[in-house]
Amino acid sequence: MREPSIFTRILEGEIPSEIIAETENAFAIRDIHPQAPVHLLVIPKSADYRNVVELAAGDPDLLAELVGLANTLAMEHAGGDFRLVFNTGPDAGQTVFHVHAHVLGGRLEEKTLGA
Ligand code: 5GP
Fold first, then answer.
1. Which of 41, 58, 86, 88 is deepest in the core (most CB within 10 A)?
2. What is the CATH number of the domain that holds 84?
3. Which of 15, 33, 52, 99 to mutate to test the pocket of ligand 1 (most atoms within 8 A of CB)?
4. Mean pLDDT value of segment 82-105
5. What is the atom index within ligand 1 of the atom nearest the CA of 96?
């Protein structure tokens, strides 16, 4: 059995982090090292999926739920517009292998994506 992920430990209250939203199957926290004025993480409660490819194949409804939660949070925290990022694999910057979406909003300075 794998060690519990950092996100499972946060969900279970073992590591302190404010849970800013929670649904039946997902929750959201603020990223500890924000890369944008608004930088949230939307995470399935289940740690069964290591990345978005596995999640899309195994539980597309849960992926859709994450996107819906990201949208709700972007409306609440970032005026509605947002960038949704799933780092997939170490070379793409993934460090936590419990699938999660980065919700980036506010004034995005990063110029390699988007306008
Ligand atoms: P990844 O690099 O896997 O795409 O994203 C993992 C994210 O989790 C990183 O942006 C990192 O800053 C964030 N993170 C790692 N540990 C913690 C933590 O203990 N609390 C919070 N709130 N975020 C964390």
1. 41
2. 3.30.428.10
3. 33
4. 97
5. 3
Structure confidence at residue 83 as a pLDDT band (50, 70, 90): very high
Q: 3-class DSSP state for residue 102?
A: strand
Specify whether the CB–CB gap between 29 and 41 falls below 8 A.
yes
Distance between terminal CA atoms of the chain? 44
Based on the residue annotation, tell me whether 77 is a catalytic residue of this protein. no
Measured in Å, residue 41 CA sits from the centre of ligand 1 at 8
pLDDT mean over 53-72: 98
- Count how many domains the chain has: 1
Q: What pLDDT was estimated at residue 115? A: 55
Is 17 part of any domain?
yes
User: How does strand 83-85 pair with strand 101-105?
Assistant: antiparallel
